Amino acid sequence: MNVLKEIDFFTVIRERHAVRKYDPNVKISRQELSEMLSEAVLAPSTANVQPWRFLVISDRELKEKLLPVAFNQEQTATSAAMIVVLADLEAYKEVDKVYSQAVEAGYMTAEIKSTLVANLGKYYENLSPDDIKSSFLIDTSLAAMQFMLVAKAHGYDTVPMGGYDAQKLKEAFAIPDRYTDVMLIAVGKALEPAHQTVRLPVEDVAFWNGFGE
C-alpha cells in the first residue's frame, strides 16, 4: 500500500506530468483509489449538481478489453487502473439528494432546499440537451483535473487520454446512454520519467482588462 506523505501543493502542480510508461507490477488498492476519488470530487460544479461519474477499471482482463478501444495505447494495460471519466446528463434529476445532505449537515433549511430544488428543476428542463452536456463536461473536467493532482499528491502518476473509440467504449462496458464519456485517465507508477514539456509564458496567454495592444 502506498504511504501518503505530505507534498507541498506547488510541488504537486510542478511535478505532475503526463506519464505513458507505467510499472505493470504496481497496484493501487480499492480503498486508496476510493480515497483519491473522494478528494477529487471536492471540485466545484454548477449549483453543486456534481455530474461526474467514474468507472474504475483495475482488473487486468478488463484493462486488456479496454486496450483496443483505446487504440492499443500501452498505458491502458500497464497502469494500475484506468478511470473512465463520465458525465451524468441526468444528474440534475438527483439534486434533491445533494441538497438533502446539505440540510442534514445544517448548511441550509428544508425550506431553502425545497425552493432551490424546484428552481433548478425548472432551469435544467428549459436547457437544451447540448447546453446541459456542455455545462456538465466542464464540471466533470474540473473533477478529472483534481483527480490527477490528488493522484500526484498520493505519489502516483497519471495521463489524461482522449484517444479512444467512444462508441466502442460504451458497447464494451455497457455504459447507459445517460452517461457521456469525457476522458480516460491512466493512473499508476511511472516506469521511466515523463517526457518533459514547455508552456507558453503568461505574457502570451493572459490579457489584462481588455484586448488592446
TrEMBL record:
Q: Which CDD domains match?
A: MhqN-like
Which residues does the UniProt record annotate as the domain Nitroreductase?
Answer: 13-189
* Short name of one Pfam family: Nitroreductase
Question: Would I find Metal-binding among this entry's keywords?
Answer: no
Say if the entry is tagged with keyword Oxidoreductase: yes
Top-level taxon in the UniProt lineage: Bacteria
List UniProt keywords, sorted A-Z: Oxidoreductase
Against InterPro entries, the record matches this protein to: Nitroreductase, Nitroreductase-like
**Which family is annotated?**
Belongs to the nitroreductase family.
Its protein name is Nitroreductase family protein
